[in-house]
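Suppose a colleague, Dr. K., hands you the sequence of a protein chain of 583 amino acids and asks what its three-dimensional shape might be. Before reaching for any lab equipment, you can write down a predicted structure in token form. Begin with the sequence itself:
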Amino acid sequence: MLKQRGNETHIRHLAEAININKHLSNLLVQRGITTFEQAKTFFRPELSQLHDPFLMKDMDKAIQRIEQSIASKEKILVYGDYDVDGTSAVALVYTFLQSLYDQLDFYIPDRYAEGYGISYQGIDYASDNGISLIIALDCGIKAVEKIKYANEKGIDFIICDHHRPGETLPAAVAVLDPKRADCHYPFNELSGCGVGFKLIQAIAQKRNIPFSKLECFLDLVVVSIASDIVSITGENRILAHFGLKLINTQPRPGIEAILKYSGINRKADGMLPANIFSRELTISDLVFLVGPRINAAGRIESGKNSVRLLICKTMQDAETYATQINDCNNERKNLDTQTTQDALEMISLNPDLIKAKATVLYNPDWHKGIIGIVASRLTDSYYRPTIILTRSNHLITGSARSVKDFDIYDAIDACSDLLEHFGGHKYAAGLSLKPENLEPFRKRFEEIVDATIKPEMLIPEIEIDSKLNLSDINSKFIQILKQFAPFGPGNMTPIFQTDGVVDTGYARIVGKNHVKLSVIHPEISGYPCSAIAFQQGDFFPQIGTEQPFDICYHIEENEWNGQKEIQLNIKDIQLSAKNSAEL
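The predicted structure, expressed as tokens, is then:
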């Protein structure tokens, strides 16, 4: 689907103001950027553009309570969820507070014994160890009863969360969540670790600590932004930009040790250039190489090891934890593969499941640690709202994933009377329920999806930012396009469409069903463009016929043996309309 083109007047004026071509100007206008100043902010983010943390509701109360704890020498527990966002947030806040105070501990709940978020066991741990203040990160916004339990034990809570609140807020000393209805913080898409960063930013401001002392934590923030798939716009874009720069130049030992297991090593010359790795790391690298490994500890063993990895001060210590975590990741991959195959087989053998508009699958033997991954894989395979459920202690627990534009959180919320707990976002959520409520929940959820999902939401589509001639792709175009990064939700890597190209005769199958080719416009002058179409070997017979075809693609720089070349990463291929009509 081709996106609606931006306002032509805005496109023309912006192209003239910043001296770029109209295709690039259109990309900016599509992103709401229409003036020179807005373009400058987009292309040249500055840390000074971050918002004042005290604009967040309850921030003053949180800082006052922390300062009171430090002055009174109370014990403080930094508590976070077991996923990447939670463990990176704990590592960030714990390390920062360590520089100010030594009466500290951190806590990550066990995925299997305690479940998601704040747990009674965690509160009991605090009580048994004389802890009177808990700072909860990436969780707690709906823990009304548990905060009440903590208050009865004389334990105060500061909640730092970014999930949607329920109707009632917990009775904590402070509830920091930009999604609170009464919070007027200018940006509400922070990650859980991002909210933790605003907390330490506020402490630093209160104590007149230079902001430069906080920049070492931006690598943790960008890992959370990437892994939690939050919007990379506004404040997140600034945090992600500088976080990536830090990872590429001065990575903390824990992140560098994890990258080694991903095949990313330092440059061999031993120098310390602007980018110390063999190639520049991107948001995608964090999503696919770093995040899953950090997550694996909490999925298979304990999320505490992820925190220990991220707070390591030496490479020797970091490599010890990275080895353990990589072993967990290998086990996770094996479980993930087998469970996904089992789930796909369940659907393929049931005609009702094949034609359904939603997928709800339950197997008490599936591993709780990988059901979220399996839900994502099934959503990719069948492209519909999906919930994968398994047994955990006396409850059934599950992970939900959605498709573009369908709010799965709202659909689950409509079943809340059948649930023990639920929380999450528009496109991903977690839930738990009693076994006797499984079938009523499945029936109602499927009915809600059936009644509310639009037919077009069930059809995967590629959103194309702009049509382009191959002759438009030159070194200046690429140089400016690279500055649109970091890419992610709200600022996805642009996809272009070019019609009527032909292969120059060198198309071939490479690897596992990939097509390597070189395309050119037969009627437009210009050099051939190197291209690759992953998992699209079925198109190979059409490509080799000298018939024109249309392509949509990302533009990327491919590096091989130290040489860089522009390459089109083709996402889809279609015979040109004229040729299709003639067949």
